[in-house]
Design brief:
The longest helix has 16 residues. The chain folds into two domains: 175 residues, VC0802-like (2-Layer Sandwich), CATH 3.30.2130.30; 268 residues, Vaccinia Virus protein VP39 (Rossmann fold). Strand 8, helix 8 and strand 9 form a beta-alpha-beta unit. A seven-stranded mixed sheet has the order 2-3-1-4-7-6-5. It has a seven-stranded mixed sheet with strand order 10-9-8-11-16-18-17. A two-stranded antiparallel sheet has the order 12-15. The protein is α/β, with parallel strands linked by helices. It is an enzyme of class 2 (transferase).
């Protein structure tokens, strides 16, 4: 059976991968029949109505789903398709209360024209009461027009007539309203690096967060990803090289760890395990498959250079005793750090994931790239990880990508010939060790000179 999914008109490169991830998570066999990044409508093939309702209930970037009764480029084609698909079902809806609406995307119809469209479906013989509020069934005629954005991007000619028309029976809406609950504007503890609530939820979805799973963020910060994964039922924990990120300042942790306030706010404290000080190269986690998912947005090293725990020369520091207590046991201790390369960071995250993800566990990693670079930074790859999807969020003069990986079972390997083979530059300065930092700062400097 075919269904029509109405998607949010934002984060276009994320929409299809998120829908596929939800289908994978729920064990739903889904085939995408028609998808266009310039339109919010996607036609999918699903087993039944139960699968359709389950799929949409978990999605963040979808709005609702309809049982597709017909489609066509003209009303003549639409009516013919409706007859072919659903004529045997019309009798089931003769006596139900119903509402019929015309929904135009990037176009409009007069009231008189809408009335004409309603009357053209008289053959459905809907004899029940028309009820605009809480009807038993909702039918929608959807007209999809070409937008200015699509015309400017790929040259598709705009028209006063829709390019596609659908008739659908509305089934259910998505979980998209949860974005308003999780918005950072209302969150008790955030930082300058807190991930947008919508994208945090999408990231958790694409990493397949669910009850009974353990998720980890090695760059936890204020815990945006952990909150999102916990919302979907996963047990979560995280680490950060700077404990102040999750503990908060002195006045913010009067009632314990500052980040914990967010879990209390959303009543998901039982989903939070703990947070601790470490990085991906120095972690107390065992080298064994114990994580179902890793979700992270590593530092890009733009404002200040990347660092990891350790000393610059690699020598072991002798313990310092203060008042009979080792310095690293004292309150407020900040461990030493050394410069770290951008390429090494990505390699170490992949290696960290390979060692600790269960088979088919997922790594969701955000990484930057230059928008107008002649040759983009290749996607980091590892022979034990399969790249599931790469989604792009563009900004003015740079972009960032969400890369989803699957931990392959033992004995399976992926093709890494197209992946990253680059290493960090020589030197010890932040610029020496971070090609993206250099490109980002040089581009900003050039733009400033032009002004």
């Amino acid at each position: 059976m075919e269904y029509l999914v109405r998607l949010a008109q934002c984060h276009e490169t994320f929409r299809q991968p998120e829908l596929q991830a939800v289908a994978t998570l729920l064990g739903i066999d889904m085939e995408i029949i028609a998808y266009n990044e310039f339109t919010p409508f996607c036609v999918v093939k699903l087993k039944d109505e139960e699968a359709a309702r389950a799929l949409i209930s978990r999605s963040i970037l979808a709005k609702d789903i309809l049982e597709l009764w017909g489609k066509g480029t003209t009303y003549e084609e639409l009516h013919a398709d409706v007859h072919q698909r659903t004529k045997h079902r019309w009798a089931d809806y003769h006596k139900v209360t119903y509402a019929l609406a015309v929904d135009c995307f990037a176009g409009k119809r007069s009231t008189a024209k809408k009335t004409e469209i309603f009357e053209s479906f008289g053959y459905l013989n809907l004899r029940g009461e028309v009820r605009l509020k809480n009807p038993e069934e909702q039918f929608r005629v959807i007209e999809d027009y070409v937008t200015d954005v699509e015309e400017n991007a790929i040259g598709t000619q705009r028209s006063s007539e829709p390019r596609m028309i659908y008739l659908g029976r509305w089934l259910a809406k998505s979980d998209r309203d949860i974005i308003l609950t999780h918005t950072l504007k209302k969150r008790k503890y955030i930082s300058t690096t807190s991930m947008d609530a919508e994208l945090a939820l999408v990231t958790a979805n694409m990493a397949l967060a669910a009850p009974g799973k353990v998720f980890f963020d090695p760059f936890v910060g204020a815990g945006s990803f952990l909150v999102a994964a916990s919302h979907f039922g996963a047990l979560t924990m995280g680490s950060d090289i700077d404990p102040r990120a999750f503990r908060g300042k002195e006045h913010e942790r009067k009632n314990g760890m500052a980040m914990l306030q967010n879990f209390k706010q959303y009543n998901i404290v039982s989903q939070f395990l703990d947070a601790f000080t470490s990085d991906v190269t120095n972690t107390p986690l065992r080298d064994t498959a114990l994580l179902d998912g890793i979700i992270c947005d590593p530092p890009y090293g733009v404002r200040e250079g990347l660092r990891v725990l350790g000393t610059r020369d690699g020598k072991v520091i002798e313990p310092v005793i203060i008042d009979g207590v080792p310095a690293h046991y004292r309150k407020g201790y900040i461990p030493p750090k050394r410069p770290y390369g951008f390429e090494a960071l990505q390699r170490d995250i992949l290696e960290f994931a390979v060692l600790r993800l269960v088979p088919n566990g997922r790594l969701a990693m955000w990484m930057p790239t230059a928008s107008d670079e002649a040759v983009e930074f290749p996607v980091p790859m590892h022979p034990n990880l399969e790249v599931i999807s790469v989604c792009v969020q563009p900004f003015t003069n740079w972009s960032r990508r969400l890369m989803i990986y699957r931990r392959l079972p033992e004995g399976e390997t992926s093709d890494v010939t197209l992946g990253r083979s680059k290493t960090d530059g020589e030197g010890v300065s932040a610029d020496d060790l971070n090609a993206f930092r250099v490109k980002y700062n040089n581009r900003n400097a050039s733009r400033a000179e032009e002004k």
